[in-house]
Amino acid sequence: MISLDLELQLLTPEHLSAILELDQACFGGLWTLEGYQRELESPNSDLLGLFSPVSSLRLLGMGCFWSILDEAHITILAVHPQYHGQGLGQALLYSLIKTACDRGLERATLEVRASNSAAISLYQKFGFKTAGRRRRYYKDNDEDALILWISELQEPQFQDNLDNWHTQVSDRLRKSSWHIAF
């Protein structure tokens, strides 16, 4: 079986058009050009992209978190619909959590649509627990958001979790003929 290499990199202003294309494909235009420019310029924002040299798409997925005090607030996790179900979301989430750990952050949080069972399942695989609910959080349809939370990123046993997730993510990607060097 041939393995296709994926590349994870920090996104830069030169990636803006690809970021906007992915945002449109995944969210129908969640953030504006100016919003992404602010993210890219902010010292408190980490915006990671997942690229494949063999895809006609320039950017297969992206993830973003804000560093707020000792917390990583995950604001975006997106995989192009053509690549759903191949482990790319797991790779991005693992990379976001690992980056947060490397930055010395203590915990991570995010909001997710209460109806998005696939995303909730992914987050739960990585240890996120439901911490609360934001009523009518999403303005497009007044849907509630679940607040998910994971803590103790700097505890010694958390490194074991990262090692296990690294193995699981690599195995999952391999099943879809992908390879990534984290």
Describe the secondary-structure layout.
Layout: E1 4-10, H1 16-27, H2 33-41, E2 45-51, E3 61-68, E4 71-79, H3 88-102, E5 107-113, H4 117-125, E6 129-138, E7 143-150, H5 156-175, E8 178-180
Parallel strand pairs: 1-8, 4-5
Antiparallel strand pairs: 1-2, 2-3, 3-4, 5-7, 6-7
Description:
The structure is a single chain. The chain is α+β, with helices and mostly antiparallel strands and 182 residues long. It has one domain (4-176): Gcn5-related N-acetyltransferase (GNAT) (Aminopeptidase), CATH 3.40.630. It contains five helices and eight strands. It has helices at 16-27, 33-41, 88-102, 117-125, 156-175, and strands spanning 4-10, 45-51, 61-68, 71-79, 107-113, 129-138, 143-150, 178-180. Strands 6-7-5-4-3-2-1-8 form an eight-stranded mixed sheet, sandwiched between helices. α3 (88-102) packs antiparallel against α5 (156-175). The protein is globular, with a radius of gyration of 16 Å.
Q: Tags for this entry?
A:
alpha+beta; about 180 residues; Aminopeptidase; globular; 8-stranded mixed beta sheet; about 35% helix
Specify the CATH homologous superfamily: Gcn5-related N-acetyltransferase (GNAT)
Named CATH architecture: 3-Layer(aba) Sandwich
CATH topology, by name, is Aminopeptidase
DSSP summary: helix tally: 5
Strand order of the largest sheet: 6-7-5-4-3-2-1-8
Helix content, binned percent: 25-40%
Distance between the termini: 21 Å
What is the gyration radius calculated from CA atoms? 16 Å
Q: Would you identify the regions where 5 or more consecutive residues have pLDDT less than 50? A: none
